[in-house]
Design goal:
This protein has helices at 22-32, 43-48, 51-57, 70-84, 99-102, 112-136, 163-185, 208-218, 226-237, 262-266; strands at residues 10-14, 36-41, 62-64, 88-93, 139-149, 188-194, 248-251. It is an alpha/beta fold and 267 residues long. It has a single domain, classed as NAD(P)-binding Rossmann-like Domain (Rossmann fold), CATH 3.40.50. The chain has a seven-stranded parallel sheet with strand order 3-2-1-4-5-6-7, sandwiched between helices. The radius of gyration is 18 Å and the shape is globular. The structure holds nicotinamide-adenine-dinucleotide (NAD).
Length: 267
C-alpha cells in the first residue's frame, strides 16, 4: 500500500542486478512511494543483468558507473540531476563484492591485490560517492544517504572473509561523512545492517544456505526479507526520520541482540 512518502523526491539507486537484489526492491518501492529515480550499476553488470527491465518498470534510465571510478561517479550524478530535474534527496549504496571470497581463498592466505580491490568496490566506493555528491553540492538540505551492511563488521562470521573489514570501513565512513554532511546541510548518512538475504552477493558466501536457516531460527521475527528492507529504506529516505544520522541500524528480526535460541538447540 503506497502512502506517497517520497512524493516529489529525487534519488539514485546503486546495485540492482536482478529481481533478487535488495536494490531492485528498493527502486520499485521508491517509485511506488512517489519518487523519481535513476538507476546505476557497473558496466559489466549492465551487460549481464536485467536492469533494463527494472528501468522500464520504474519509467527511468540506467546510467552506467563503476563505483570505483571518480569520473563515472561525476558523470552519474551530473546526468541524474539533469534527468530528474534538480538536486537529489536520497541515494542508496547497495554494492558488495569480495574477490578472495568469490575465489574461495582462505582468510589466512589472503591475496592483498584482491583485498585492495574488495575494499575499493565494497567500501571506498561509499566514500567516493559521498565525496562527489559533496563537491557537486548535489543533495538537497535534509537529504538522506544510505549504505547496506552486515553484522560481520562487528562480530566474527568466518566465511564472510574480508567483507567483514569492508563493512566495518563502510560503517565508519557513514559516521565520518555523516558529521560533515550533517553540519553543512542537515543531510543524514546511515547504514542498514540487513539479515542474510538470498541474492547473488549473499549466496556467494560459502555455507550460505545453512547459515540462512540458522539466522532465521536465531531471530525472534525471522530473517528480514528484501521487501521489508526496501520498506525500511523508504522510511529512512522519508521526512519521518530527519534526525536519524551517523547510525548503523539493524534490520535483522532481532538477531543482533540474541545470545542463544532454544530453536537452534532443538534443531
Ligand atoms: N544478501 C545478503 O545476505 C546481504 C546481507 C546484508 C547486507 N547485504 C549488502 O546488500 C548490498 C546489496 O547486495 P545484494 O545482496 O542485493 O546482492 P547483489 O549481488 O544483487 O548486489 C550487489 C551489487 O553490487 C554491484 N557491484 C559490484 N561491483 C560494482 C562496481 N565496481 N561498481 C558498481 N556496482 C558494483 C553488482 O553489480 C550488484 O548489483 C551489498 O552491500 C551487500 O553486502 C547483503
Amino acid at each position: 500500500m503506497a502512502n506517497n512518502l517520497l512524493a516529489g523526491k529525487r534519488g539514485v539507486i546503486f546495485g540492482a542486478l536482478d529481481e533478487k537484489s535488495i536494490a531492485w526492491k528498493v527502486a520499485l518501492k521508491c517509485v511506488e512511494e512517489g519518487a523519481k529515480i535513476t538507476l546505476t550499476n557497473a558496466p559489466v553488470a549492465l551487460r549481464m543483468g536485467k536492469i533494463n527491465e527494472l528501468a522500464e518498470a520504474c519509467n527511468t534510465e540506467v546510467i552506467a558507473a563503476d563505483a570505483t571510478s571518480m569520473e563515472d561517479l561525476e558523470n552519474l550524478f551530473t546526468k541524474s540531476q539533469e534527468i530528474l530535474g534538480g538536486k537529489l534527496d536520497f541515494v542508496l549504496h547497495s554494492i558488495g563484492m569480495s574477490i578472495n571470497v568469490r575465489k574461495k581463498k582462505a582468510y589466512t592466505d589472503t591475496n592483498y591485490d584482491w583485498m585492495h580491490k574488495t575494499f575499493d568496490i565494497s567500501a571506498m566506493s561509499f566514500h567516493r560517492m559521498m565525496q562527489v555528491l559533496w563537491k557537486q553540492d548535489a543533495v538537497n538540505d535534509w537529504g538522506s544517504i544510505l549504505g547496506l551492511t552486515y553484522i560481520a563488521s562487528q562480530r566474527t562470521f568466518p566465511d564472510y572473509g574480508e567483507m567483514a573489514e569492508s563493512k566495518a570501513l563502510l560503517e565508519s565512513f557513514a559516521r565520518s561523512f555523516g558529521y560533515h554532511f550533517g553540519e553543512a546541510k542537515k543531510i543524514r548518512v546511515n547504514t542498514i545492517s540487513q539479515s542474510p538475504t538470498m541474492t547473488t552477493a549473499g549466496s556467494g558466501v560459502s555455507g550460505f544456505d545453512e547459515f540462512f536457516g540458522y539466522a532465521d531460527k536465531m531471530s525472534p521475527l525471522g530473517n528480514a526479507p528484501a521487501e521489508a528492507c526496501a520498506d525500511y529504506c523508504v522510511a529512512l529516505f522519508s521526512d519521518f526520520t530527519r534526525y536519524v544520522t551517523m547510525q548503523n541500524l539493524y534490520h535483522d528480526g532481532g538477531f543482533s541482540n540474541m545470545g542463544m535460541s532454544p530453536k537452534v538447540i532443538e534443531g
